[in-house]
Specification:
GO terms for molecular function: DNA binding. InterPro entries: Cro/C1-type_HTH, Lambda_DNA-bd_dom_sf. The chain has nine helices and no strands. α2 packs across α3 and α7 packs across α8. The two termini are 26 Å apart.
């Protein structure tokens, strides 16, 4: 189904923006920092963005790890649980290196139990954490997201 008006399209975008931001464990401030915007601007956008430019919307989508078209496609299949998928990919990469959870935790500077919680999908992670795991596992951050 195609949104019937620009207002519907804007509402679809801001709803998806908020959902993705929260799923990534990002505050409005953290997303704003990534985009060079303040928290109030992100809040205003999430409350309704009829005048949001295409360029700004695309930049927000990129910061949220997706494309503008994916955020506006109501027909898109729901994404699998990204937290669970991230944890599974971390486990796959870790075991491929022959490491146990303690070894990975030491490389990142965290507790083994935290690695276990992430691998089992019980712990959401920040983008900084994503980067730490990617660096420790010698992969691109996006390799842990797809």
């Amino acid at each position: 189904m195609v949104p019937s008006s620009m207002q519907d399209l804007a509402q679809l975008f801001v709803t998806e923006m908020r959902r993705r931001r929260q799923a990534m464990g990002l505050s409005q401030q953290a997303l704003g920092d990534m985009l060079g915007l303040d928290r109030n601007t992100i809040s205003r956008i999430e409350r309704g963005a009829p005048n949001l430019s295409l360029l700004n919307a695309a930049e927000i989508a990129t910061a949220l790890g997706t494309s503008l078209s994916a955020m506006l496609d109501e027909r898109a299949k729901p994404e699998p649980d990204e937290v669970q998928a991230f944890g599974s990919r971390v486990r796959e990469r870790r075991t491929a290196k022959g490491w146990n959870q303690r070894e990975l935790a030491e490389r990142i500077g965290v507790d083994r139990n935290w690695v276990s919680a992430i691998e089992s999908g019980r712990q959401n992670v920040s983008l900084q954490t994503l980067r730490k795991f990617a660096d420790a596992l010698s992969v691109a951050p996006t390799d842990l997201l797809r």
